[in-house]
Specification:
By secondary structure, the protein is an all-alpha fold. It has three domains: 206 residues, no CATH class; 116 residues; 178 residues, no CATH class. Helices cover 69% and strands 3% of the residues. The protein contains 21 helices and four strands. The strands form two sheets. It has a two-stranded antiparallel sheet. It has a two-stranded antiparallel ribbon with strand order 3-4. The chain is elongated and about 80 Å long.
Amino acid sequence: MNLLTKYLFYLLIFTSVQVTYGFEIEDIPVQDEGRIKPLDTFARNHLLAFYGKRSLKDLDLTATDWLMNLILDPHNGRKQKIFNVRNPDVIASLLMEWTTEHKYSFNDIAPMLTGQSAMLASIDQKPNKDRTVFEKQLLELSRNVLRFEEISYLKALKLIPPGNDNISGEWMSPYDFILTGLPMNQYQEKLLGSLQAYLSGRLAKEEHTMQKALLDYENALMSFPNKQFEIDTLRKETWMNKVNLFYISLGCYIMAFIILAISWMTQPLWLSRISIAFLISGTVLHGYGIILRMLIMGRPPVSTLYESIIFVSFIIMIFSLILEYFRRDGLGIFIGAITGSIFHYIGFSYASDGDTLGMLVAVLNSNFWLATHVTTITMGYGASLMAGCVAHLYLLQSLRNPHDEPRLKSIFNNLYGITLVALFFTLFGTILGGIWADQSWGRFWGWDPKENGALLIVLCQLMMIHMRLSGIAKRAEFALGMGLNNITVALAWFGVNLLQVGLHSYGFDDGVARNLFIFIAVELVICFGLYFWPRLKTKPKPKVT
């Protein structure tokens, strides 16, 4: 392991050194969706909403390039087929021709939406739960078209921080000053003048003018009184957007699995070392991405479904590496590579909704006890799911080779140890949640669905440990119980949001019901199948008289 230790050391040094560059157009702060973000994030999120992707690879344009082109030449920008519409009913309702490319321009859609204003108004008055898929998509398209128009007019680009006399903290756009004639202070004048100089230089393709304008813009930002942002933080977010550490870590996990599979078939030792090197690389990059998110948001990254999925998968990766360190037979690599890849794909599905660094519900961004509670309970989720994975492996091994007692005993000991760790974090995470609830809502416990879910995880793990210690549950029964415990974790983690009741209901429920049902069904089939199959095979045949 000396070679791997050295590799990990150098990898940590590499990830700790962030690329340093000058102030770029992507780093310009803009207020959007309740927070201050770099222009790069603003452009990526809006392009994702319009086009379905965060860049225009066909045209070799980044999101920021697309935004700049739209601002400089809105006439051509409105003719660009930037709206991705894949519902033929939506197109039919707008009396437009359906195309296999599913791409339409602002000029194609906007006039047709005007003729459907009455229908859109009636849809807008409906509660979201009462809208059909068609109505939701039509309403979303109309809002995207309106947003596109506001961007092209610079109306949606809140680039200018407010003056000292503005107590609301609301930023203003160039549109507010240029077309409405709002008075400006000297700092706002410098910002607007620098922005105009940059756009002029970009239009004339004068690199020197652009760089000077950006330098002036940065100096104006730095001198702005009572600024609510840090340029270094904006740069970190821009860099994170460009590098996309989670996609790289996903690639590492997939490579770790592929190389591990080859090593199991061919048996060379050096392949297994390469496999664990990829797993370590993915875990380090995974963790570095989480740290960057913490630095940008100023809070633990566990307050939304996307954040909790990414964090839980990281916890599982840590346990996988620890498991591999003690076993050194590839089981830790196997669990880590599989679960890391699956959780990344699940997380990416939630990331496709837009800004993953968005503002939280006020109660989710409150105090120290919330941070410790959510972090601890999320670590409990990760440890519990890791125990469930090892339980699956035990049942699988007992099916493949039930007479390999030393290996079965070794896997079970790992399972039991991880279960104890999971119980520790879920129990104390639940207690810390009670302390937070007492400070936030004035009561320690209120039988809220989320609270009940956390309690069920603790009780399930306590029950299995008690049954094992008392001799009621043998090793196979314990493994079955901990495998089924994954269902309890999923219901406590995701399922309670579907109820839409209780103080813990924050609306993170999009697409959960179907996926949760599939997960529960698959888990039931796998766990009971692995447990009962060997027993059905060994069942004595009745004697024929």
